[in-house]
Amino acid sequence: MTRTPEERPVMSGARRKVSFTSVDADCVAWHYPGDNGACVVMAGAIAATKEPGTDAFAARFHDAGFTVLAFDYRHLGESGGQPRQVVRIGEQLADWNAAIDFAAELPEVDPARVAIWGHSLSGGHVLNLAAHRDDLAAAIAQSPHADGQAISRNASRYQRPAAMLRFGGRALLDAIGGLFGRAPLLVPLVGEPGTVAALTTPDGADMPRALNPDDRYPDWRQTVAARSAMRTGFYRPGRYADRIRCPLLVIACDQDHSALTEPALRVAERAPDAELVRLSGGHYSSYLAGHEPAVAAELSFLRRRVLDAAPSADDRHDERSESPRDRSPAR
Hints:
Blueprint: E1 16-22, E2 25-32, E3 39-43, H1 50-63, E4 67-71, H2 89-104, E5 114-119, H3 121-132, E6 138-142, H4 148-155, H5 161-179, E7 186-188, H6 207-211, E8 223-225, H7 227-232, E9 248-253, H8 261-270, E10 274-279, H9 291-307, H10 313-322
Parallel strand pairs: 3-4, 3-5, 5-6, 6-9, 9-10
Antiparallel strand pairs: 1-2, 2-4, 7-8
């Protein structure tokens, strides 16, 4: 049963813990109550929990009056689900749908003013969801994972053949073990070329200082099940760009060697109502040197496209009565 924020302990400060049910487990989230009626639902990149993945942006959105709901996917962080550290595309999309529905029911939120935000893999989910839900006010895809096949091909340029074989073998063993209920075989999220890690691109090395400066989040497990890379390599949510139904902001980094720049640019070109902001730097520039320009662009977009332009909840209700919502994003 879904629990409202009032049924959870209130944490000191501007945010408090809440939880909601997604299929078979509880997802834990930070709820930042706002005062302008709009809400931004957020999640971190692959295996990045809600704190390192969203804190730097969530606080700024909340300071501007927005409610924020920043959640952990099942199998990660404080959320439930077994086994741990496993990334499954379909399950994460289901978690997003549950989070959006939960956010729309928060007492201070206008259901017609719910936006979604994601970085990297979660940015890819944002594209998928925006193409398959008609109740979103806006979407922000930051350095999005738009084309997993292109990402995988590019990643091989920054890895040594022997390490690629070791990683592939570990991923295959992990996938087979998962069929028999064995514990996941974990790999580090980032590493140097020649090591067995999920990401060995040059800008991938920026992840610790971008998301976890000065070891700010010591409880964050910076590992992922090896089998997860097999799933993300085939995930291409950018192909739905021309079906995106709400205003979209794409943040693309010009030296992105991890999620790549070109697939993000193609999304911005194809989406019917897209805005594009380009930043200098690599995949994590929006957390580093490009943080202030990214925040400024995202706040401007949210004010213009969510606060000023979103229809009322009554208007949305009339539209949904004529066209039922598709709640099954493609995997």
